[in-house]
Amino acid sequence: MEQGLPSTSAQTQKIKMGAQLSSPPNNMANEDGGGITDEETLPPYSIASPPARILWNAPTALSSISISNAVRRLPSPRRRKKEQKRTSQHDGRSNNVEGCPSPIKKKVDGRKKNNDVQGFDALAAVLSEHHNEFVSKQLTTDGLLTNKWKQLRNASKPRESSNAAAISSPRSVAGLVPTISPTNHHHNMDSPASPLFSPSPMMREDPLVAPLYLMSSTQLGMRRLPFKDIVRLKEGDEFIIVLHQPSGKRPSNVSQRVWAESNSRRKPNYVSNDVWSKANTQWYAILGDFQKTVLDGIAGSGEEMDAIYKQQLSHRSFQRDGQEYYELHLTVQSCPEQETLRQYNLSERTINNLIEKPMNVLGDGFHVQLYGYGSFLLRYATLPYVEVYVARRQEDPYLDNYIGKFPRSNNEDTMLTALKGQLHATNGDMAATVQVMMGYYHHSYTQMKQQQRQQQQRQQQQPIDDTKIFHELISKELTSEELVRFASMIDNDYRERMLDLYSDFSEATPYLISEEQHRQYHNQLKRTFPNTYRVLHTIASSKYFPLQQKNVDDDMSTNCGDDNLLQTKERQLLFVFYALLRTKSRNHLNHWSQVDSLARCYKGHQQPGGKNFAGSFHSTLPTSLKKQQDLYLLGSQRMSDKLRRLAHVSGAFDNHNRIINKKSNSDGKSAISHIGTATCLKQDRPFQLLRGTKIVSPSGIEFDLTKCSKTNDPFIYLLKGTLTSMIPEDAGTTINHEKSLIESGQVEWPTLGWTVMYMPGFTPRSELVYAGQIVTPPQLAWISSNTSNSSLVLNPKRKLVSPLTKRKKSLDSKSYIDCHQLARRLVDMNSHVYYLTKLKERFHTVHDESTTFFIRAIRDAAPSIAAAASFQRDIVQQINPNAGKVDRMYLFPIIPYSETSNNEMKMAYAEMGKCLQLFEIDDKGRVLTVENSDKRRINLGVDALSARNFRELEYTLSRKLGEVGASPYVKAMIDSLSQITVENDYLHETRFHRLDCIYRLYYGAFLQPLQVHLGWKKINGDPVKNKIQPHEQFMWIVYNALRRHRFDQFIKNMNGGEFKRQENVSTKVHLLRLDKMYSNYCNTLEQSMDQPTRVSALFMKCVESYNRCFNGVRNSDFWLMEIEGSNWLGAFKLCDKTNYVTETLHRMDTLYKPNRTDFDLEWTRRNRFFVMTEGGRGMSFDEVNELQNLWNKSCAAPHDFTTVCEMSQHLMVMRMASFEVYGRNRRSTVNASQETSIAKLVTLFETVLMFDQKVNQREMTDNFFWDNVTRPVGVGSKSDERKEKVAQTISAKILYSVICSPDGETIQIEEDDDNNSSATNNNDSVVSSCAGSQHHGTIDLETDEFTSDNVEPWETLNEEVSALKIADSLKKVGNVRKKKMSKLILKDMLGDDGKNQLKQIKKKHEKTLKRKRKKIDDIHKFVQLYEEKMTGRRAILCENIAKSEQNTFESKSYWWKDEYKKLMDQRNGDM
């Protein structure tokens, strides 16, 4: 290799140029006329890893280096050929576009041409051959670019210095010689890359010796940093700063303005005098620091010191544009604000604050070290006035993306301003300058091509020829293979998406085809069929709703983000084009054509008629279902294979019941009943295992987990571990393979057969006692040993610790429920303060001292209360990191057997087990076990009735074993039951039966009078059989009214000084003291001797627990739900809900049984809920199953149940098809404000002196609240009244005033009569005047139904009349009779009274379980004994058959036959 030739490796690369840039522009030519010849050897080059510290000759570099973005935006060779061909066809000229020669051909080592390099060569050739044409136009940017070319050419020459001469090179600058600074030695580029500064130290003994090994800032390997990157320099970074030579110090008698004008020769024209003056100040400051650093430690006279300083400064000087600059080589030592500067994005305000700091304050810049000398402070305020360079690293990109970009504008002033700004920002960085200029040339080239296209369009031929050509173009487009290819692509995407829904789990809410895919289809339509799209675009665009105007020839590849989704009209254009394809041929888009019919079926809409043109391009519903059936058969087989490989899965099943009314009664039947079972599954999410977990492989290899890594698939983790025992080398292929997977960390988990034996982080389980059961905390429920409950709730940065931490303690269940109650009380306090504030703003009420201090205390603790409000979500996210993530589901078709009876349940389970791949059923009905089904675990969440029926399956199926020949049909089903866990889930338990417990205790004599007081209908006290929504909403209204009244009484009964915070008490401590006072107050009310007060307080206690359960499901808080489930066991027993007592006990058996592993329990807990939308609320599995039933019932309802079951196979496809056709309903239902009802109840509670401590020992009677309620008059708002009535016309108002006004009074209507007399003002009706009475002018009709209620309250009526009034009011609100007060209304069902019901619960339950287990075991014992006996008999029979075949059979004599014969002979003789 020739000396001085740059290279980054031992191998070189030959690039033969197809055409030499022999005639560069005059202002761009090199003085030596150098350039690259055909056989010139170039170093290998890569944009990703460019050679460092090399300066390429600018024109040559432009023709040989591929520059990323500018080159990529050039037209491709294929596209250029098309444009050249089109130009030659229209104007008869050559194939080359005018002003653009054919591209320069280039070959790199015989390999395939690179499009980027070719495009760059073409652009370079255009600039070279046609630069004179640009100059002839005398554009304002030409001179600017010409000067910049000269600067680059001059900068590439060796610099001269008074102390050292430039090292001569055997090759010229144009021959690609690295630029050599006078302050450095020649660096051999064949050697490895060196740092910015050579490690050789400077000779401090002789200060006049020139510094060596300093790189120059003008080399191409140096990159100029923008200001946003300068402030991000870190400790140890090496860089060079370049500053202008100051203009000299201004004498004191010369003004600033005069001094600046006198030195204007140095100042550029675009720099203001003020900026130039500030820059001089900063340059003097830097040189002063440089002088102090260089002369530090050197003794000598003033003249000697000055000579040393000038000598060192001259070594660092160079000429640029005829002016002198200095460059200093520095290293960052420290940065006081490094933490702030390490932020990913610094705002403009932060950067300005760094600049505007005082210069003499420590910490307002970098502490830098001058190479070879000491350190000084480089202030931030100095950085805008200097140039900063760093060395390009090989791994850094060679080009900067933020430069070389120009606005899309033809305005010369705009382009000149942008070019000036970018050239100024890159001044000194030659590579960046070249990139800026090439960006400008590329923009000019693009604009030129665009102008040529526009000119060609204006030179079109006659209109008739244009029409013919346009028709031919469209015909060619629609008859080409591209049309078939486009239609096949669309149809295949629809088919694959439909097949995925049948063959795998999927999310429940996305569209069939995503919006991003539709955008890609739209862009493909633009590119492939531009003329057809122009026609559609022109037709659809309008004045008020125009479509976006884009050139079809432009690149359509866009980033399909939310801001780039298709407009409605664009989607309609796409739909119209699909419809035209279907009209052209019915073979196109077969699967797309099924979407509309499936969507109509899901919505229950009528299908279009056979001759309906609107639906002529859609498939009919029978055709769609038939084709979907083919996809279902293929996809269901894939799903079955996947289910066999899943170790864990969750799901639900429930009864499907639908009544379809017949048009006319026939044979005594008026409706068709479809009763079956709906089943769904959820794909369980695995969780990250902790280090130290013990796992066993399928071959029995035990290892300790050391690493659990995530993968791109959220349902797969990779495990790595260490073996607990040695494996011999001859152990076998399978064992050695598993060993290698374990040691290399390639074990995919969860995988069937890999079993977790032990998991760290669990506390010892408590004994299963049912009553007051202590719930085992989750694996990750650990806190620091010094963390209290209050700090866990009030600290916004709460964080649980790892179970592997040493100083930790377990967060037990009691502490967890206490934290929930504390957080809820604080949030309620804040809500009441908000209510008091709004009340004061609206009615200008004056707060007393207690209320004022209470409001102030809560407001001061706002951050702590905000932390309490987010307590549950934060904790759940930490104990279950998968909470809130969207889950995937799979919907099985409706099973045509009901699970409500024992016999139907057997058949339903047979179909369900076949769907779950637990067993198979052959053609003869025999049940066969599936391989590895005993290693799988399936968790199902159902209602209490389904759980009870499923639990009875083992007994009912075991009884069939006693029947001869039934074993092959039931044995596999019985064995598979041990792999399924069934629990009653929380929708029915909480929203139905816990609500029913509240209404059973508190509806009669308490809630029912309040219902009449508000005038609410559709409430009868039985939420299980009636609608639960109105019952639940009414309960919330009563609770909110009681809570508001309880806060008012709490504040009223307390002294104002108790709410005032002392100066030495923190807000958190004071807040906890208020909470303690309020908690004690609530406990006092629950134990009050005043029975109405106690009833209300106990009702609030139950509702608060119900609210925790309600939010626990929504937040996927499995731990809270288990605790509350244990607490409500006594309430179910007290309210005589036997089924839920039994099912709650069985759920505890399932969760906390001794033989259940910690891993199995943790897996069930973390997959306990289903999330349908991202960040959405959690749902229990029985609620998901109810949604599945709702979706099935929304479909069209044929009378044939077989058709309904077949249609349910395609439920998920139909649902997503409806999203695509009709869109998703994103509207959220918000309940109307109930403030009026709450305020009315608060007034009632104030009337009855509720929660008043002065009132004591009142008795709760049936009529306590009835005596204080009144029926509402004029219910409804004015808005409701406007919706119910129609505005009357004038004639109707006159008629109404005459015949409908009460008391004979008529509305006075003015008439055009001049003879009005006093008789006209007489308000008596004609009827009253005829009756001869002026005082009783009304007919004795029925009085208004509300009059008596308003006049005489019920409290003053006797018992008989009051009962009649109550019964009449109940009829008005829809009830039948008055409910009596419950005998248990004073019982605390969540407290001691509920616990007292569970004293013998464990003994009774264990006795019941033992009895049922014994019945099943006895059946199996008898069957086993029978089979053993039959086995012996079969052996004897086979032996006798063999003897008979050998003629050796002997008749066997039985002793009893001889005795019997003797007895008979004796009897006959006696006779």
Q: How would you describe the overall organization of this protein?
A:
The chain is α+β, with helices and mostly antiparallel strands. Helices cover 47% and strands 10% of the residues. It contains 52 helices and 26 strands. Strands 4, 5, 6, 7, 8, 9 and 10 form a 7-stranded antiparallel β-sheet that branches. A hairpin with a 4-residue loop joins β8 (365-370) and β9. The longest helix has 45 residues, at 1401-1445. The chain is globular, with a radius of gyration of 45 Å. The N and C termini lie far apart (140 Å). Mean pLDDT is 77; it is low at 1-77, 87-140, 158-213, 358-362, 551-563 and 1304-1351.
* Rounded average pLDDT: 77
Count the E strands.
Answer: 26
The oligomeric status of these chains comes to single chain
Low-confidence stretches: 1-77, 87-140, 158-213, 358-362, 551-563, 1304-1351
In DSSP terms, counting alpha (H) and pi (I) runs of 4 or more, how many helices?
52
Give the end-to-end Cα distance, rounded to a whole number of Å: 140 Å
What can be said about the biggest beta sheet?
7 strands, antiparallel
Helix percent reads: 40-55%
> Structural class, from helix and strand content?
alpha+beta
Tell me the fraction of residues in β-strands, as a range: 5-15%
**Overall geometry:** globular
Please render the helix and strand layout as text.
Layout: E1 13-17, E2 41-42, H1 58-64, H2 68-72, H3 77-91, E3 106-108, H4 115-129, H5 131-136, H6 140-155, E4 222-224, H7 227-230, E5 238-244, H8 256-262, H9 273-294, H10 302-315, E6 317-320, E7 323-334, H11 338-341, H12 348-356, E8 365-370, E9 375-379, E10 387-391, H13 412-425, H14 430-458, H15 463-478, H16 481-503, H17 515-528, H18 530-540, H19 568-584, H20 594-603, H21 621-645, E11 648-666, E12 669-682, E13 694-696, E14 702-710, E15 717-723, H22 733-744, E16 747-749, E17 755-758, E18 782-784, H23 789-794, E19 808-810, H24 813-843, H25 849-860, H26 862-869, H27 871-879, E20 889-891, H28 902-915, E21 919-921, E22 927-929, E23 937-942, H29 944-951, H30 953-959, H31 967-976, E24 980-984, H32 986-1014, H33 1028-1053, H34 1056-1059, H35 1067-1086, H36 1091-1114, H37 1118-1127, H38 1129-1134, H39 1138-1152, H40 1158-1166, E25 1170-1171, E26 1178-1179, H41 1181-1194, H42 1201-1208, H43 1211-1222, H44 1235-1247, H45 1278-1284, H46 1290-1299, H47 1326-1330, H48 1347-1351, H49 1359-1372, H50 1392-1396, H51 1401-1445, H52 1455-1470
Parallel strand pairs: 11-23, 23-24
Antiparallel strand pairs: 1-2, 1-3, 4-10, 5-7, 5-10, 6-7, 7-8, 8-9, 11-12, 12-20, 13-14, 13-17, 14-15, 15-16, 18-19, 21-22, 25-26
Helix pairs in contact: 1-4, 6-13, 8-9, 13-14, 16-17, 16-21, 17-18, 20-21, 20-43, 24-25, 24-26, 30-31, 30-51, 32-33, 32-36, 33-36, 33-44, 35-36, 36-37
